[in-house]
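Checklist before submission:
- one chain only
- standard amino acids only
- sequence pasted in full

Submission:
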Amino acid sequence: MHPVEIREVLDSMTILVDRREQPTLRAKKRYKRFGCPYERATLNYGDYAVNARLPNGKWIYDVSDTVRPLASVERKMNLDELAGCFCQGRERFEREFQRAADNGARIYLLVEGGSWGALQLHGYRSRMNPNAFMASVIAYMVRYNMNLIFCDEASSARLIREILYRDLKERLERGDFDG
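Returned file contents:
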């Protein structure tokens, strides 16, 4: 793809927000801070993915069907929510990551208000043992090629956009959508 075509595709970028994500006031503020259009879609995994119009005029994904994105961002509001995913919600959480792995997708886990230090020092409400918590997180990183990113709430929208933008740009430059 020619650099001008890549720029046009990137300019058409739209963030897909999973329909299951509750449109709370906090979420709506995040969407506005994306700095690009967004639309709701049913994602097979993750909370956010990217769509864009290719030079042939077609969109990468047909949002009228369940989208199986090549890259997605799974956002957790804090370590408490993440701990819950490794305790009572583990089977559902693991199935979601397995679906991403089965599709060869990259999955980015964005955790607001967390850090490795807080995880190790039991800086969360769950009774999950910090060693077990860390072992679970790292196992997912290895098993599902998951990229873990800690951030604060104020920077999450920008990070979601940048992750999806850079992932799309790399794929376009490699020619993943040619032909």
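Reviewer check: The chain has a mean pLDDT of 95.
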